[in-house]
Design goal:
heterodimer, A: 197 residues, B: 370 residues, alpha/beta, Ubiquitin-like (UB roll), Elongation Factor Tu (Ef-tu), domain 3, six-stranded antiparallel sheet, six-stranded parallel sheet, 9 helices, elongated
Chain lengths: 197, 370
């Protein structure tokens, strides 16, 4: 059953109330690794949004027109991840060819997100929650924007914690994990706005 | 049944995706043929663009050190790129020091070949190879000096600077139980990449020279490794003071022919002192006198240290060092560079004379094989 929720609410919900990163804890590795620098964070956020949107839609099409008709939904994990890998690789080639400056900004991060669990996570959520096409579009874009927002916020905070008197043992990843936890609690405040499932 | 079907589906989907990627790769990633210019035209490769510099060079059998295999995590595959190929990527930055950035060092695995590039790598990285060459001609230049010409195996070529040398490998023979290696300067023109030529003088009791003079036959295969050495013409406008004795003629034959070919021969004053005992030890005289006559800037000064009575000789007489000393004091002035090739004793004697004539020892070049 397709859930009864408008695409717009789904978009807002995906950004704030059920942020793929801070509510589902997906896409954590590149989130922590890249958030050291705000420019790279921006590029990576853009790349994740782009890839999420494209792979979300392609995977939805494959699910609807190949996996379900053939009755092989159990193959979704393999199929989704292979599709993601292929799409990312093609995107990298195309962006590299089209625009050098765009490639410098986000293309170089593309290989990093082939194995980003947020991308696979979104594809699987779409399947589990049985979104229709519009909802899929909204949810994919929203998740990407949410991820982007989260990494920008974290990069900004890390800029501050880098200069703050952090206890020796918590420096680096330690304080970052705590920061993410506090951010997640902050985002929990949005959850009263609307329920997205 | 289900197992088989599943495998078929997976294989099918993977195959379709691979095909799409392959087609995209062929269309989007097709940058056509790209020219890689290594070390200022020492070697030029025409390759297919689209892949990383590291893997492309690897396919051309030029192996840039890399520990991670091109993932951009070890920072070992540093290469100086002298042409403009766009800004350094964030993935490279962590591995490059400010000094390296200044001379535009890049990570070969992160540089994608899209246009022609000029790169600089240490010579020894790509140049040195072993060749199983075939003896093409042997010419007796004097009673104890042979000119040996070798043809490299078909499909291979050698790139070197005139003045460099190769290691000769001689198999065990007679009482010699092991393969023996000796270095000899190449006398051939670097333009000819398929053949190399050496001038080898018979040294009494010399393992390799004896072999070359007594046993080496036409069409025989012999292993050489190279090129090696730092003896080559420096690109300055200083006067070249070249001194050679015996088979030390070899690198100069190569250097002069190379300069003639590149039309740089007339760019500067060149003095060539060549020492021998008697006229019987002289060779290539016609060629050198011709050059002397033809080019005003080239001065050939041969000298005999022990001329025999009754010999026809219109050159200098005396030790080559004394003759050179005379000229350095009188005729050769201004900025000077020394180029020496000969026996270690001769090299030392020449160095002394040059230093006494206020030549900068840093600008006296030679390769000591001993």
């Amino acid at each position: 059953m397709t859930p009864d929720i408008s695409a717009f609410s789904l978009l807002i919900g995906a950004v704030f109330t059920s942020n793929i990163l801070l509510a589902n804890y997906l896409g954590m590795c590149s989130f922590i690794a890249i958030s050291r620098d705000i420019n790279s964070s921006n590029g990576l956020g853009m790349a994740v949004t782009l890839v999420l949107t494209i792979t979300g839609l392609i995977n939805w099409l494959i699910l609807q027109y190949i996996l379900i008709p053939l009755g092989i939904i159990y193959l979704r994990y393999i199929v989704f991840i292979v599709v993601i890998a292929a799409v990312v690789q093609m995107l990298e080639m195309i962006i590299d060819r089209l625009s050098q400056s765009l490639y410098m900004q986000l293309g170089i991060y593309l290989p990093l997100i082939t194995v980003n669990c947020a991308i696979l996570g979104v594809a699987l959520f779409i399947e589990i929650r049985q979104y229709n096409f519009l909802q899929t579009l909204a949810y994919s874009v929203g998740s990407g924007l949410g991820w982007w927002l989260a990494i920008i916020l974290l990069a900004a905070i890390r800029k501050k914690t880098d200069k703050s008197p952090v206890p020796e043992g918590l420096k680096g990843t330690g304080i970052t994990m705590i920061t993410i936890g506090v951010m997640a609690m902050g985002f929990l405040g949005f959850s009263g706005m609307l329920a997205v499932q | 049944m289900e197992v088989i079907l599943t495998s078929v589906y997976i294989a099918g989907i993977s195959a379709i995706l691979s095909m799409i990627i392959y087609v995209t790769d062929k269309i989007v990633n097709n940058y056509g043929d790209v020219l890689i210019d290594i070390n200022n035209q020492t070697k030029e490769l025409t390759v297919k663009g689209g892949a990383s510099l590291l893997s492309t060079l690897g396919e051309q059998r030029i192996f840039i050190p890399s520990a991670c295999g091109g993932k951009g995590t070890c920072g070992a595959c540093k290469v100086v790129v002298t042409s403009d190929i766009g800004p350094v990527m964030p993935t490279e930055l962590p591995y490059l020091s400010p000094e390296e950035l200044k001379i535009s060092t890049r990570l070969a695995c992160q540089v994608k070949l899209k246009t022609n590039v000029e790169i600089a790598i240490p010579d020894e990285l790509f140049n040195i190879q072993q060749y199983s060459a075939k003896v093409k001609s042997i010419e007796q230049l004097t009673y104890d000096i042979r000119e040996v010409r070798l043809a490299l195996p078909e499909g291979t070529d050698i790139t070197y600077k005139s003045g460099q040398y190769c290691q000769f490998e001689v198999p065990p023979y007679r009482k010699v139980k092991e393969s023996t290696f000796r270095a000899y300067s190449m006398s051939s023109n670097p333009q000819d990449k398929e053949n190399v030529e050496f001038i080898i003088r018979l040294v009494p009791e010399g393992v390799v020279t004896t072999y070359v003079h007594e046993l080496l036959e036409m069409n025989q295969e012999i292993n050489i490794t190279g090129p090696f050495g730092d003896f080559h013409v420096r690109d300055t406008d200083a006067v070249m003071v070249c001194v050679a004795g015996g088979s030390g003629m070899a690198p100069f034959k190569s250097i002069f022919n190379d300069m003639l070919n590149q039309s740089t021969f007339t760019d500067r004053e060149i003095w060539y002192f060549f020492g021998a005992l008697t006229t019987k030890d002289m060779y290539y005289l016609d060629w050198l006198w011709d050059l002397d006559k033809k080019y005003e800037n080239f001065h050939f000064v041969p000298a005999l240290s022990k001329p025999q009575e009754g010999e026809q000789w219109n050159g200098e007489v005396g030790l080559i060092t004394d003759v050179m000393d005379k000229y350095l004091k009188k005729e050769i002035t201004g900025k000077r560079e020394g180029y020496l090739c000969g026996s270690p004793g001769m090299l030392d004697a020449c160095m002394d004379v040059m230093k006494k004539n206020d030549m900068d020892p840093e600008k006296i070049y030679f390769d000591k094989f001993a």
